[in-house]
Amino acid sequence: MDFRTLFEPQTMAIIGVSLSNDRHPANVIFSKNKLRYPVRIYPINPKGGLLQGEKVYASILDVPDKVDLAVIAVRAEQVAGVLADCIAAGVRGVIVISGGFAESGRTDLQAQLASMAAKAWLPMIGPNCLGIYSPGHVDTFFLPSERMVRPEAGAVAVVSQSGGILVDLLVKFAEEGIGLSRAISIGNKALVREKHLLDYLVGDPATKVITFYVEGFAENEGREFVQAAARSPKPVIVLKAGKTPGGSRAVSSHTASLAGDYAVFSAVLAQHGVVEARNEFELINFCGSLSCYQETIGNRIGIITSSGGHGALAVDTCSRHGLETPVFTEALQTTIRQRLSANVQGIAAVGNPIDLTGSAVEDDFVAATEVLCDVPDIDCIIVLLLPYLPGISSDLGARLSQVYRRERKPLIAYVPHIEKYKMLIEGFSLNRVPVSSSIDGAVLMADALRRCKAC
Amino acid sequence: MLNPAMTEIFEAGRAAGWILEPEAKTLLAAAGLDVPRFARADNLEAALAAASQIGYPLVAKVVSPGIIHKSDVGGVVVGVGNDGQLREVFQRFRTLDPGAAILVEEMLPRSVELIVGAKIDYQFGPVILLGIGGTGVEIYQDTAIRMAPLKESDVPAMIRGLKGRRLLEGYRGSAPVHPASLARLLLAFSGLVMEVADRIESIDLNPVLCFQERCVVADARIMLRRP
Questions:
Q1: What confidence tens digit (pLDDT) does each residue in A14-43 have?
Q2: Residue that finishes a domain, picked among B106, B126, B146
Q3: Which of B143, B145, B154 is best to mutate for the A interface (most A CBs within 10 A)?
Q4: How many other C-beta atoms can be found within 10 angstroms of the C-beta atom of residue A161?
């Protein structure tokens, strides 16, 4: 199956537009793509007529153009007929938005669609989904444009079984400055499933990090998925819902009891180099760092800050995640101290964390970062910035990023994410240095690099 | 490949839904796993004859398709010292199940007890588990799980993944576990599990007794896939 035209269609049909209700999902999809995306778009309704001045076609078979992507938003029992027309018309890809299938007991209707599409070798997303948001190309989410929060175009692809979680993740991506390459809501995944999209995204030049929200796999589907993920040269992140065992099933063996569904899921993911995010917070931070760095690191972290408390909390979090914060050698401590400005040279702590104190100036941060870049025993540097200190300006982000670009040792920053500090944050993020809005998040960013074997 | 004798053991277990310990051990031995010297006896005379072969003291276990959790019903006796004691034990087992057979087995010294297990996971197929074993296995819940088949490099990583790994490295005077034997056992087990994945639901080897030079499966239970 060729997925490319699903994500970058030239022509698109919206089947099921309403001639009287402009808030109908199909109409929302029609409007946003007509106004905002570079596709030729054909509305379809058996009654014909006009929609926003455009001719409405009675059937996809009447459309005088090869259609790359058909979005189907008609009632469940009509979908099979519409799908048959799409196949007859030679449509290259289909998204079925409509619900009323397996999720409400109609597995028969769903199986019928899957079998029709499979026979025709036609990639079909859904049913019961939002479809695809491919920045700059197409958006089949039936959410009015003005209501959606859109992250910038970027490196991370997200595939989600839940449309709601997906839209919510886009909000968080936008907040945290994480760029999006593709967002795909796969709904009931009757035909196109996680493994197919993983295969496609591995070859998708727009995508560097592949993320999944998974509720569950079908029988043996997980095996194929992790085997494909282990071969992926791009980092794969998975957030699993349904971690707690459902009720107390009678289990006849110790192994069956000890190796419950989630225990197996989590262990097998790790075995195959997939980074498991335990919650949304981890997921966001993993995406943030893996979209900047795709090289695996060791577990030794150097911490630079201007507050003892920030350093202590970061060390605690590192230890909880199995990351080490080794105390620097006497010789190294002396080197660091010699590089510091006169006002902090006598008072800074230089053991790891390096606490430059509230009297630090920008040159102290740059010097400490430069020294740690030269230490082979440190795999990653976390800089915890307190932007309200008088010695620091908005330039520090860009200055530290330059050190990274020269030395290439992964650098992760913590800066509170509020409007006032945006220039400082962008000094990092525009130079591809990840910035977290929390100390815990910055540590998770380092943890992702250590855990990801594929990168 | 399963040989005909192994296939027969699976067929014989079908009615009960599981494979009893003597047959499970025969199967494991055929797959290259180390098991204690043992014999299954269906009557007292055969039990006494087997005991004289193996030598006292020995371990006696009840063999009955109706008794899955043997130690819960007093169906495991360690340190049986002579014919008289064996006779008593045999008669008591017969009160648990009038048709019960008896397993008499070489008694091994105390050692680190591990669990090695397998189950067919719905999403991922056959998986292998290594953990701190013994009767407290579900209390400690200290396990490492991998999707089968195992690679050689998986074994040290699994051991490192156990909270109780120091017990395996020789803790406070106890002898360390022989890593090569444990690796050999896990890899042979993984091979067997892949071979019988469509026939089983789960396998418990618990405990696996680990010594300085060998790892021995002291108890085994194979639950068959329900038709």
A1: 999 999 999 999 999 999 999 999 999 999
A2: B106
A3: B145
A4: 20
